Structures are given as structure tokens and as C-alpha cells.
Amino acid sequence: MSPQPRSSSTRRTRTPAVDPACAAAVDLARAAAEETARPAKVGEHLGLRAEADRVVTHAFACLDPAYRGWHWAVTVARAARAKAVTVDECVLLPGDEALLAPAWVPWLERLRPGDLGPGDLLPTAPDDVRLAPGFAEVDDRLDRQEQYELGLGRVRVLSLEGRDEAAARWYDGPAGPHASIAASAPAQCSTCGFYVPIAGALRQVFGVCANEYAPDDGRVVSADHGCGAHSEAVSIPAASEHGPPVIDELGYEIVAPGDASA
After folding, report:
1. Contact 26, 45 (CB under 8 A)
2. Quick one: which of 60, 69, 71, 197 is 20 to 30 A from 137 by CA?
3. For residues 233 and 187, is the Cβ–Cβ distance under 8 A?
4. For residues 87 and 25, what is the distance between their CA atoms, to the nearest angstrom?
5. CB contact at 8 A, 91 and 73
6. From start to end of the chain, where are the E strands?
7. What pLDDT shows up at residue 119?
8. CATH class for the region spanning 20-94
9. Half-sphere exposure of 121 (CA within 13 A, CB side)
10. DSSP secondary structure string, 193-209?
11. pLDDT score, position 246
């Protein structure tokens, strides 16, 4: 009875042996590194590592000041029963102390408020937690257009989580109560005649400034925000009528026009 083969879970990975011919091909590997690094120079031989049977990688120091801590890795190989060693690949690899670029971040996560310009399109993910299907958002407290038939309204509307995120961002931003201009304001926006409350569930906290001379004109502001353009900040006194001017006649004589005796 023949023995059963070992399973992949019990099979051990064999460490490849260093091929003598590939290990001795230091000059061949250096020539490949110098050809790739030109016009930069290649430094000393740092060692070698067996990748597989008859496959060895030689490491050389990189002398380019822009790649400090990197090294050239040249892989050489030899076919079975062949004596000639050839270059397989030559790459520049980082070492433990190499200066690396930060981890790649998708462009959608790098985007910041204000980056969107004319003609730019910003797609919204289908699973964006800030949005909910239009037919699923049935909160009666929200003031929105009535949908007579399923599918005729907006495809997605602001979800409760999206509303809370927006409210926190607006309240903590430059149009909230913690802004420096609000700290020196004579009164809050909620008492200003130019304050227009917005519709919906955010009406109790936010409104829009309608004062063209205010720094937040046309922007959403919190009810406890404020600025110096408050409608009741200063009362301008009414214009009063003035009497005729008083003329000092001391030192000269007033002569009526046409008086020949003067």
C-alpha cells in the first residue's frame, strides 16, 4: 500500500539553496544596476538572497541623494542544466530607513470643502450615510414637497445622520456662536430683522442672513450667532430742521443791495 501524500497544511516550505553560479554573478548584476541608475552611481554590494532554485537577488547601495535608504535589487537566474546566468529584473527598493511617500488615499477622501470648482463633478456613493431613499424618509417633522406617487419625488433625501452632521458642522463653524465676530456682537441673530429662519427640522437652530452689509449675507447662520450689522444695534437719530445761520456783525456794517449812499 503506497503512502498517502501530505496535505497542504502539513507540507513544509523548502528554503531554496543559493545557486553558486548566480551568487558569483555580482559583476553582471552590478552592470545591470549601473545601466538602470545612469547617470547616478551604484554603491557597494550589500548581499544576496536566494529567491528560488537558480534564482538569486543581489543588493547594491543606492548613492542617489534623493533615494536615501533605498537599494538596487538585481535578480539573476539560470535555466536548468545551463551555465549562463542572465538578468531577470532590476528594481529600486526601499530599506528600513527609507523615506517613503505617505499611504495613498483615494481622491474622494482627499477632497476638502472649497476644492470643487466650475465644471467639476463630485459623485456621491450609493451607500452614503448622509442620504436616504426618498420613499424611506417618512419623518413628519421634515418640511418637504409632497410626493404624490412613489418615484416622482427626489431619489434621495437628507437622512437623520446627514442632517445631524450638517447641523454640527454649521454650529461649530464660522457662522456659529463660537465665532469671534459673534462674541463681540450686540445681539443674537434670532432677534435681528434680517434673520430668515429656514424650513424643516433645522428651523429652530438655523436661518439665513438677508442683510447685504453683513459678512454672512446669504449664508446659513445659527440663531445664537451675531455680528455688528444687527438690525437693532444702533438707532440713527432722525434729521432735525436747522434755523437760519447766525452772522457775527461786529466790526462791519451790513449794506442793503442798491444803496448808493454806501
Report:
1. yes
2. 197
3. yes
4. 9
5. yes
6. 42-52, 55-62, 70-77, 86-94, 131-133, 156-158, 195-197, 206-209, 220-222
7. 77
8. alpha beta
9. 2
10. TTEEEPSSGGGGTEEEE
11. 63
What residue segments make up the domains of the chain, in order of their start?
A: 20-94, 162-222
Query: What amino acid occupies position 215?
Result: P
User: Bridge partners of 165?
Assistant: none
Residue 32, pLDDT score: 93
DSSP category for residue 217 = B
- Residue closest to 67 by CA, chosen among 97, 89, 39, 112: 97
Q: What is the C-alpha separation between 162 and 169, in angstroms, rounded?
A: 11
Measured between alpha carbons, how far is 164 from 161 in angstroms, rounded to an integer?
Answer: 5
Pairing of strands 42-52, 55-62: antiparallel
Segment 108-163, tens digit of pLDDT: 778 887 777 777 777 777 888 888 877 665 554 444 444 444 555 677 888 889 99
* Residue 213 grid coordinates: 452689509
The answer to whether residue 167 scores a pLDDT higher than 90 is yes
